[in-house]
Structures are given as C-alpha cells and as structure tokens.
Amino acid sequence: MAVVLGNFEWINWAAATGYFRRLFMQHEFGLTEYAIRCLIGLALVLGTYNPYSLSYYHWATDGIGMTPLKTLVGVGLLILHSVAILSGVRSLGPIGIGLLTALFASAAWVLVDNQFLDIEDPRVFVLVLLVVMASVYGVGLSWSHFRYRVAGQVDSTDVSQNSPI
Amino acid sequence: MPRYDANPPIKFVALFFKRWLASAALVFGTYNPSGTSYYHWATATPGLTPVQAFTGILLFGLAVAFFRTAYLSIGYVGAGMVAVLITMSIILAAGLGLVDFDQVAVTTYMIEIWITIVLAVGVGWAYLQRRISGERYILRSPP
Hints:
The complex is a heterodimer. By secondary structure, chain A is mainly alpha-helical. In chain A, 68% of the residues lie in helices and 2% in strands. Chain A is built from 5 helices and 1 strand; from the N terminus they run H-H-H-H-H-E. In chain A, helix 2 packs across helix 4, helix 2 (31-48) runs antiparallel to helix 5 and helix 4 (67-113) crosses helix 5. Chain B is mostly helical. Chain B has helices at 12-30, 38-43, 50-95, 108-133; one strand at residues 137-139. The longest helix of chain B is centred in the middle third of the chain and has 46 residues, at 50-95. Chain B has one domain (12-133). The chains are: A mainly alpha, B mainly alpha.
C-alpha cells in the first residue's frame, strides 16, 4: 500500500470546508452579532477611561515607565475609536446619533428614577455617560448590517471622493 | 457577510408580512382609536414619566427609521402608487359586488392600515428589486 505524501484525495473537501463556508458566507446578522459589537464598544470605551482608576488613561498617566508600550496601546486605542466613531457617523448620521443618545439617556433616566442607579455619586454619573456612549458605538457598528437585513439597502462609503468622513 | 454575487430566492409572503406586522405594531402602538395606545397612555396624566419618555423616543426613532427607509426605497411616487393600488382594489371589490360603496368610509383604522402597507412595501422593496432585476439599492452617503 503506497501512501504518497501530498495525496489529499481522501479528504472530503466539501464537508471539510462546509463549516467555514456556512460561517463566513451565509452569515446573517442577528442579536448575537449585535451583542458582540456592543461588548466590544463597551470594552473599548471603558478600557480607555473609566472612573474606577483601572483604565488606559490611569495607566498612561501614572508616570511609571513603559512609555513605548503606552504609546503603542494608545495609538491602537485611537485607531479603534476612529473606526467605531467614523462608522457610527457614516451609518447613523447626526439625526441617528442624537436619537440614540436620547434613547439611552432616557433608559438611564428610567433606571435612576427606580433607584437602580445613584447618580449623586459622580463616578456613577460618569460611568452612565460612558455606557451611553458605548451603546451608541455598538449601534453605530451594527446599523449598516441591520439596514441590509431589514430593508436590503446597502450602505456604502465612497472612498474615491475626498469625503470628510 | 452577504454574498453579493448570488441572487438568492426571496420568500415574498414571509418578507412582506414580517415587515407589515412590524410596521403595524409601530403605527397602531403609537395611536389607534380603541383607547389603548402610546398616545392615550402618555396623555392620560400630565407630564411624562421616565418610562413614557423612553417609549416615546423609542417609537419616534423607529418611525424615523421606517419612514426614511421606505422613502429611500420607493419615494413619494411609489407610496402614491401603493395608495392608488389599495384604492383601486377597494373600487374593484365594490365593482365585483363584494362591498357596497355606501359601506366604504375613510376611518382612522383604514388610513393607518394604508400607512402600514406603504411602509411594509417600502421597507421590503429593495429585496424585491434585487430579486427581479439584480439591482442593489446602494446608499452613497448614508443614512
């Protein structure tokens, strides 16, 4: 029995690649994908700054060495923030961002009114503002997918023009 | 990721009825003459509670999204055509003797059902256009 190295005819390629084809090609945007983007936005915003002294801001301003690493992480965070903000501005526009901010702020108002949040504490107040911002990040990253799934309209970015965003 | 090179078949009935249900929930939830709606809930007491404000902003945002999407897909002309289509179907029903003209009255319910049908067709139209002619509706500068 001769086993020739490099003979892969015994592999059922259709079955072997089927999982990835389903994963990447017939992928429908659902609540899971939205939750992933929300969590990423939350991690990005709260990782950059939060009022509980455990964030990139506090690490970068504590003045204890590791300046190259701090610069590297800072530029990485800047890039991620740019991607999130620009996709939100493009897909939502000022009207959408205003409406979503009002929506999440009123949700926070509901929680405050029912004594779930104590915004007399300035740290909680700042945290609520950051979570509202992160939620807008999450919707901004998802909105084009939602629009495509619900309405079939495709958002596009005209990169050949000198677009401000 | 959607496959832009494919022309997948659409389930027209499911596509349309899902969007019709969603727009009906939006429109009838905002106002209907039966007395149970967001409008009646919010105007029953002076001032707004936080939950009422949240629901109002949510409904307003959804309405903006739905009307904007429908307007982008079919525009005023398409909305007018759908309205004329509904009117003609009523006239046809009268002509066939299914209803009498005397019974046809323009009520609030009827207008709201018109709005929901226009919204449902508008929101789903891009899928239909892609299936029919392969043309995608692209937003050059969204939203």
